[in-house]
């Protein structure tokens, strides 16, 4: 089935999310839409899937115009979509999830799942999915849950399958298996629209690449194009994908976490008895699939978690039990994983956001009075130092792009003497050019003699920045390994395999080619 998007434009008020986009997906082709977060890729696919109505333009299937009033129309036309955040009901079985929206019944109105189970087994056998129709979704690993989403589309005879950032929550091994599945689907005639910002995966599996920047198609490329060429198309200028980082020179150990446990309101141990330390002048990167205790770990260090057991020591001083303000005042810099929720106040000015943790201190305040002139003077200095793209520090922080918002958060935290720096997902939703800048600032803080802890679900970022790597799985510390540990070993550790066992595993399965070993790709 040939799919064509012609002149697709989608406006939300004055915001133009898609601007006259043309894309052609040929039958049996893996066509990648490559672009930064916020470039308009997902909006375009939501138009294709009937979730949004286009402001202008048309969709053609086999050269005939079609109109979708909802996802049901898109599915009936042979288009399926696997969303970045899975649309599964955890307490339902695989068969029940697959049947949703297309239920068949027995006489008397009872749900008939036998046909659905048979179709699941047929598809699972055909593609080697190994999915049990009667398994509860909540008991399945993330990679298998994604296969269930793909089965949902294939059961409805999808001829074009949209995969929206499909590797965002996968280990490297799960990612390799997904790329294999994509190749099998292609060989059986299914066309795939692959939405991604990860250059390695795009080059490995795509037949053709369309690059979108700020809602417009800015070019097409072959998968043989270098990562540097693709990154330049994404950003609109030349960028370096390799971080020039001297070896760490660790000094004394000043930050220690001992037997730390964090208990959720449900009673679950979301962080379960972990211990580690960080020396001055080194970066410890915490790796793992999202949701394995990373968020709770950083929040416990900052004093945001209530039920915490164990010890957190900074220069011999106990941090547990102290307030967030006290911990920040003790010299802890903290970049949260969600800048829009925890890092910035969008309605406040950029200048005000740059002093959120020092608004009551000199030179910005004297007694109960603030000094607006000093606040703006500080903002002008930080804006220049961190290359924040804005005409004025008086503008609200909410008007900035994601990359510039992250620079504001980073500038605030790194513009004071620190005894510990923690950055959680430091480049999430940030363009390639800003990633380059932020990574250099993180390394500079390390070289300034600060112990640095980075938490990232992007394995490329972990490998790029780390001097040592700690891997979390289900709230437990699987192990701490040195920088330079093989990618496949880290991937297995992210699935709960011990470092020793992971090091003795075969790097690839007999049916799976090795992942690209090209370095420097951190997007």
Highlighted features:
523 residues; alpha/beta; Rossmann fold; 3 domains; 6-stranded mixed sheet; 25% strand; globular; cell membrane; transport
Plain-language structure description:
With 523 residues, the protein is α/β, with parallel strands linked by helices. It contains 18 helices and 22 strands. A six-stranded mixed β-sheet has the order 6-7-8-3-9-10, with helices on both faces. A six-stranded mixed β-sheet has the order 16-19-20-13-21-22, with helices on both faces. A four-stranded antiparallel β-sheet has the order 2-1-4-5, with helices on one face. α14 runs parallel beside α15 (432-447). The longest helix has 16 residues, at 172-187. The protein starts with a strand and ends in a 20-residue tail after the last helix. 45% of the residues are buried. Residues 508-523 have low confidence and may be disordered. Pfam families: ABC_tran. Residues 3-239, 255-499 form the ABC transporter domain. It is a peripheral membrane protein.
Give me the side-by-side strand order of the main sheet: 6-7-8-3-9-10
Number of alpha- plus pi-helical segments: 18
Q: Mean pLDDT score, rounded?
A: 87
Major β-sheet, in short? 6 strands, mixed
Please provide the count of β strands: 22
The CATH topology of the largest domain corresponds to: Rossmann fold
| Percent range for β-strand residues | 15-25%
What shape does the CA trace take? globular
CATH-derived architecture of the largest domain = 3-Layer(aba) Sandwich
What's the CATH H-level homologous superfamily of the largest domain?
P-loop containing nucleotide triphosphate hydrolases
Q: Uncertain regions: pLDDT < 50 for 5+ in a row?
A: 508-523
């Amino acid at each position: 089935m040939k799919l064509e998007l012609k002149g697709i434009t989608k406006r939300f008020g004055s915001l133009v999310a898609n601007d006259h986009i043309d894309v052609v997906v040929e039958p049996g082709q893996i066509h990648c839409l490559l672009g930064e977060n916020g470039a308009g890729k997902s909006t375009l696919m939501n138009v294709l899937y009937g979730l949004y109505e286009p402001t202008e333009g048309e969709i053609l299937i086999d050269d005939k115009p079609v109109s979708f009033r909802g996802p049901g129309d898109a599915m009936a036309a042979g288009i399926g979509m696997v969303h970045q955040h899975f649309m599964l009901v955890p307490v339902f079985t695989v068969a029940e999830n697959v049947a949703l929206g297309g239920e068949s019944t027995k006489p008397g109105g009872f749900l008939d799942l036998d046909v659905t189970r048979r179709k699941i087994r047929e598809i699972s056998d055909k593609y080697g999915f190994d999915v049990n129709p009667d398994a509860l979704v909540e008991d399945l690993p993330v990679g298998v849950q994604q296969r269930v989403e793909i089965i949902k589309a294939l059961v409805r005879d999808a001829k074009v399958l949209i995969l929206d950032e499909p590797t965002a929550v996968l280990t490297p091994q799960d990612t390799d298996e997904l790329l294999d599945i994509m190749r099998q689907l292609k060989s059986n005639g299914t066309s795939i629209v692959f939405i991604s910002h990860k250059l390695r995966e795009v080059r490995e599996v795509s037949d053709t690449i369309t690059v979108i920047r700020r809602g417009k198609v800015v070019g097409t490329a072959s998968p043989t194009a270098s990562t540097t060429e693709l990154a330049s198309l994404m950003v609109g200028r030349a960028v370096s994908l390799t971080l020039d980082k001297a070896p760490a020179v660790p000094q004394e150990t000043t930050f220690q976490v001992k037997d730390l446990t964090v208990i959720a309101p449900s009673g679950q141990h979301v962080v379960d008895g972990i211990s580690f330390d960080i020396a001055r002048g080194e970066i410890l990167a915490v790796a793992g699939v999202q949701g394995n205790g990373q968020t709770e770990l950083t929040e416990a260090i900052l004093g945001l978690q209530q039920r915490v057991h164990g010890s957190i020591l900074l220069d011999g001083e106990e941090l547990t039990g102290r307030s967030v303000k006290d911990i920040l005042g003790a010299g802890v810099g903290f970049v949260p994983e969600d800048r829009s929720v925890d890092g910035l106040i969008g309605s406040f000015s950029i200048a005000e956001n740059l002093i959120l943790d020092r608004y009551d201190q000199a030179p910005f305040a004297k007694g109960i009075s603030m000094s607006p002139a000093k606040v703006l003077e500080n903002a002008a200095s930080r804006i220049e130092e961190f290359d924040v793209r804005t005409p004025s520090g008086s503008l609200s922080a909410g008007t900035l792009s994601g990359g510039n918002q992250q620079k504001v958060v980073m500038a605030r935290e790194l513009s004071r003497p620190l005894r510990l720096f923690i950055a959680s997902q430091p480049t999430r939703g940030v363009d390639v050019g800003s990633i380059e800048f932020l990574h250099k600032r993180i390394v500079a803080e390390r070289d300034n003699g600060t112990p640095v802890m980075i938490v990232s679900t992007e394995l490329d970022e972990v490998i790029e920045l780390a001097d040592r790597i700690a891997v979390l799985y289900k709230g437990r510390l699987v192990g701490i390994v040195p920088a330079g540990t093989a990618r496949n070993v880290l991937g297995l550790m992210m699935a709960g395999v011990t470092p020793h066992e992971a090091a003795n595993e075969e790097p690839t399965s007999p049916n799976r080619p090795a992942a690209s070993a090209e370095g420097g790709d951190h997007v």
